[in-house]
Amino acid sequence: MTAEPQAESPANAPVRQRSLAGRLVLVAAVWSTLALVIAGFILVGLYRAAGERAFDSQLEVHLNTILAEMVAPDTTGGATPGVQRPENLPEPRFSLPLSGWYWTVRKADSTNILFASPSLVGDPLVLPSIGDKESLSGFAQGPRKEEVRFLQSRITIENISYVIAVAAETAGFREEVSQFARQVGLTLLAFGAGLVGAIFLQVRVGLRPLSRLRSSLSAVRMGDAESIDENLPREIAPLAVELNALILSNREIVERARTHVGNLAHGLKTPLSVIANEARANPGPLADKVGEQAAVMSTQIQHHLERARMAAQRRVIGVSCEVEPVLSRLVRAMDKIYQRRGIALQSSVPGGIRFRGEQQDLEEMSGNLIDNACKWASSQVSVTVRRLQEGGSARSLFEIVVEDDGPGLSEEERKEAVKRGRRLDETVPGTGLGLSIVADLAALYGGRLELERAGIGGLKTRLVLPAL
Amino acid sequence: MRILVVEDDADLNRQLVTAMTEAGYAVDTAYDGEEGHFMGDTEPYDAVVLDLGLPTLDGLSVLENWRRDGRTMPVLILTARDRWSDKVAGIDAGADDYVAKPFHMEEVLARVRALVRRAAGHASNEITCGTVRLDLRAGRVTVDGTPIKLTSHEYRLLSYLMHHQGKVISRTELTEHLYEQDFDRDSNTVEVFVGRLRKKIGSDMIETIRGLGYRLGEAVDG
């Protein structure tokens, strides 16, 4: 089965619609990517805030330790009564020069540093002013231009207000946050990929009934099935039901058209017989004219009825028929009709070949060929059906070959015979449309009619038609 | 030879009857399916011309009923529906031949002649018995090559005997195949016709088999 090529020019070619599966996957993918990115940012933000709070409480512990060490109840007097330089701090990094961990103590009303950690080695620790607040935390630059987080707190000892500041390098913390962000990113990326995959799968499985519907419809169109399988999910089952109704009504319309055509034929042919016979029974110039015109009418009616029938039966979807029973019936009937002329009718029709089209048309085509052969044969006619495989094309075909041992036709006559309404010999009764009708019908089905000289002497007609 | 014509179109029916009568047949006629079926079922015909599109009972059913009841007379069907499916259906129902409308009367006559001849087992359109020669196509009889004139009843009688030559034919059978249905048979007895025929073709040609009937030509089995 091949896709139908679009014959339209690019200008008015329809814009190709994105597939349903594509739409669903795209929307789901965009949405989940967005959701995952936002989730990632929120997670990292929360993690950073939690980390900062932990950092701050660590700084507060140090600040309290410094405060505890600073308070000396036995020292009094001087500029800073009850206060001594804090020593023996548990954090060794306060002693290592430029370690990133610093503290300072100053009086609240002065910018002069009272005490400073050894790690500062004389450099100043520049921090934002605490102002009137009791405590202040934030980020600042350390002596090495490194980023530090600080905590300043105002305390009062012996009525003197001091500001204690503790600062620590944030590099490790920053590293930890970005490492966390990387992990979160990777995790969410994997999660997102899994999600998109799952959506894709879901869409595929979800839309499978649609593709089942499509192949079912295509089977009907190809004639492999009579109707569409209606065993489908609730959402699209009504579509299948409607399609089946459409197929059925198509068949009915064709059937009705055919019935009308048949009735018309019956209605016209009897009076025509009467007119023609009446004229022949009463010879004279008027009778000649009537007879001649009746013959013309008869040919015209036959011709147009055939065309109307052909138009009616073209493109009926989903029809096929078994070749063997049709041919066998025909051969049996012909045998009965022509046995008076002593014609031996031989046939070789294998079973299992299906014609892709209307049974009536197959009957019409092969009936005309066999009838024609029997009319002309002197003693024998043979009918052979064979399946064909034409080189290159995947199309399945079969042929009906009818041969007779009659006088046959010359090459010129063979060409003439398949033209419309041509009757080669007026003495053998017939409508004169036989072979040309067969050729036209065969062409409608994408087949062909070939005339050759038969091995047994007369005419060989070869009808090639599409098979299933 | 007696023929039944079943055709609902009055004009066509009349034309068929006229042509058949002129060709020397005794012709009965019916205008619908039921009447036709009854006549074919009860009277012995040598051939039937049956239209398929009939009122009350269609031709195909008439034919099928006859065949089911064991009526074997040859039947020629007339049909306007000339698709092969229609023709094959007719043949399958038991028809012996078909003619598609519109037709020439000669065509129908030729087919009927062939059917009658074939039913009696004759291959040619000329039947001979001794010096008597019957040309079915022309409806002519010659004795020793000399044409003789026969009335229609004499022709029917000779034709029937010639078709069934060598067989003993009863008077009843002859009567049945010589006259139309509503013919006054009393005034035209078979004996009178046999007597006249003997004068024209030679008295030794038709033998009277006492108590059984008549025989033309040498006796054959069956």
Automatic annotation (TrEMBL), chain B:
Residues 124-218 form the OmpR/PhoB-type domain. GO terms for cellular component: cytosol; protein-DNA complex. Gene3D superfamilies: 3.40.50.2300, 6.10.250.690, Winged helix-like DNA-binding domain superfamily/Winged helix DNA-binding domain. Pfam families: Response_reg, Trans_reg_C. The modification 4-aspartylphosphate is found at residue 51. InterPro entries: CheY-like_superfamily, OmpR/PhoB-type_DNA-bd, Sig_transdc_resp-reg_C-effctor, Sig_transdc_resp-reg_receiver, WalR-like, WH-like_DNA-bd_sf. The keyword DNA-binding applies. Keywords: DNA-binding, Phosphoprotein, Transcription, Transcription regulation, Two-component regulatory system. One of its GO terms (molecular function) is phosphorelay response regulator activity. This is Response regulator transcription factor. It comes from Roseibium aggregatum. The lineage of its organism: Bacteria, Pseudomonadati, Pseudomonadota, Alphaproteobacteria, Hyphomicrobiales.
